[in-house]
Fold this sequence. Notes:
Blueprint: H1 2-32, H2 38-91, E1 103-106, E2 112-115, E3 121-127, H3 132-148, E4 154-161, H4 165-175, E5 181-184, E6 200-204, E7 210-215, H5 219-243
Parallel strand pairs: 3-4, 4-5
Antiparallel strand pairs: 1-2, 3-6, 6-7
Helix pairs in contact: 1-2
Amino acid sequence: MTSVLFYSIMAMYFIVAILLLFALFSLVMVCVSWNTDRRKRHARWLGLSLLAVSLAAAATYGAIWYVWIPLVGQEMKVEHDALRAKQFSETTIVKTGDRAPTFKLETLSGEVFDVPQRDRVVVVSFFATWCGSCLVELPHLQRMWESRKNDDRFRMLVISREETADEVSDFLDSKGYTFPAAADPDRFFYSKFALESIPRTFVIAPDGTIAHASIGFIKDDQHELEKIVDDLLASLSDLSSEQN
């Protein structure tokens, strides 16, 4: 489909070029025949050719920006999603619906963090300070933390893979991130979730199962992540209301 559209757009460019040449020819003929009766005829052809150039250029612009670019973007997204799904399938140890690994670790602030946590929704995200996609995701995680940190039913832990506590602390301070974080210099905790590739984000439901697992990061991921978290928090609220 995109190849057919590509050649169609190339043909439209060719038509615009031909019309421009005809308009230029008409302009020359208007100048040459300025003092003759043929001037008006050439002037009409010049006007018509300029109108045709404008219409053809507008059609070409519309085809590129409203058809070609969206279509190419859609095809690229499909290919990216397929590659991402393949990578996720081949490198992920725990997936949606699995039991979450059980562990404890000390955060940079000295708090002991338990995974999973009963009656709490826990977000665990693995990153590294050198990872480009991670650097794009972290500001979104910070905003997510800021908007939910006062909810006792919500916990977040961002873990740096293969970096020391000092390196992670210096990085977070330089960026102004305040979410709970920890270092995993030996990949001990990361290896419970996956074999390779970051960023990785997991949502652990109050019952200890993986409610969401993702690899990499694109903007739509954050909307999906927040919806899943908020739906789980809402279900906790509903359960609490029923018990009361």
